[in-house]
Design goal:
Main location: membrane
Strand order of the largest sheet: 1-3
Distance between the termini: 30 Å
CATH class of the largest domain: Mainly Alpha
CATH topology of the largest domain: Serine Threonine Protein Phosphatase 5, Tetratricopeptide repeat
Family: Belongs to the SusD family.
Structural class: mainly alpha
Organism: Parapedobacter composti
Number of helices: 21
Number of strands: 10
CATH architecture of the largest domain: Alpha Horseshoe
Largest sheet: 2 strands, antiparallel
Subcellular location: Cell outer membrane
Number of domains: 3
Protein name: SusD family protein
Radius of gyration: 23 Å
Helix content: 25-40%
Length: 533
Amino acid sequence: MKRRVLYLIPLLLAGFTGCEKFLDKRDPTATTFQEFFNTEADLQRVTYSSYLDYFTPRDNRRLLFYMKDGRSDNAYARVDGDHHLRIANGTMNSNTRAFEYYYTLQMKHVGRINTYLANIDVPYVEDEAIRQRYKAILEGLRVWHYFEMVSRWGDIPFLLTPATIEEAKSPPVPKEEILEQLFQMSDDIANRLPPDEYTTDKYMFNRYSFKALVMRYALYYERWELAARLAREIMDSRKYELYPNYRDLFQYEGHANNREFIIHQNLESVGTNVTHSFRDLGPHFRTGRGESYNVPLKSLVDAYWTAQGRPIDQCPLHTKREYELNPKLNRDPRYEASIMGHGDIFYGEEIDVYSPGNPMYYQNQRASKSGYWFRKFVSEADAFRNGNLTYGLLRYAEVLLTYAEAKIMQNDVDDLAKSCINQVRERAGLDMAYANVTLPQYSAYTQQQWIDLIRNERRVEFAGEGLRYDDIIRWRIAERVLNQPALGHTREVNGQLQSLHIEDRSFASHNYLWPFHELVLKVEPALEQNPGY
């Protein structure tokens, strides 16, 4: 079924915020789309901006991937205007600004891409292969938008060419019908992309980075066989590998020179030589830049199993109480690589979240209400300067754990699935004398035990990387984990364990889908509000 997508002409150039220098028009007097969409450079500009304005911004905390853990039980995002706070605590309805913002923004970008694709043959290029490459990349970005929108709203308008105002008011298409077309389109797009990573424009899709993206959504939408097949193809390509040091992968030591980042949010992708992860995630130290906008919760801290790969309440070496009071005790090394808190050393000084005179005092505005901060993406070198740390939006560890999860969900835990888990655990530094999943004690695991293992493995491997919210939604566990208070650091007070209390949270069964904002329903009367709103 041929579909066409919403596009409003006045929005065409409005979305180019954040990349003005790069998007300077060849003809400064141009006032229409046709006047500036003429050359190969124009093709590059619109493709670049299609990434930058939604998927790779450097300073829009509503869209930054590492902020999205604040929607989940992993973290607390303190600023209401960033939208993550209300999504996590359940204080939302069909008039909540966030849902108009995300829906309108994504539809605007899809509309722009549709217009670019409808005119893709217009710009002059010396090599036709260049045109086809940009065309495939733009089509891939459109698929990415639709995967995201379907996951949030379910049935939506699905349109693939520019539309008039009236055509844009077409009825929504069922989610499953959209997904079927997206996965079919994705095969063709991947085959038209070059197999190798670009030496410049590294962040742009190549064949395998796009397959990795489709793999992610195949897993999300329970296409287990497809997810496993794509993961296997990426593994077999031998183009990517785990970086040997987990901590350094998210620091200056390894961020720019590794073969693990498959979709790489490098400096070119953000349109500047500055990034802001320290500002967004780091502590306010003396006169430093940290704003503690998104901080870890006790729920995430307790999710780090022991160095032997056991849950902290099932370990014979120490009690759960001991583990809660000392998160570094016999813990999965990914904890210290990813999180810091009260009693840890930062910039040569001990962190104290309980002394009112300390800038890290948990009640200060720019401090962490949980008493924890992400160490991942936070370099001490950036405490008093603008940093330029770059990030992996999708990395090879996700390929390995996707293959394992897809096989577990098919109840077919083969040798490769076990190897994938072991590779991730061994790189993390677990004690493989116990954590090796080929050991005899794992041979009796039920499917549910494997599910519990792989889900926790994903949680700690990707902590702070924006995947947790999608995971708790697709696993249908948000009703359990987001109906708990958001808690922070735990200490002993008068013989009792006491955790910092940040806020109460709630999640209703209808919150698995987001509402259409009331303004959107007025503009698109054919839409039907999702149940419960």
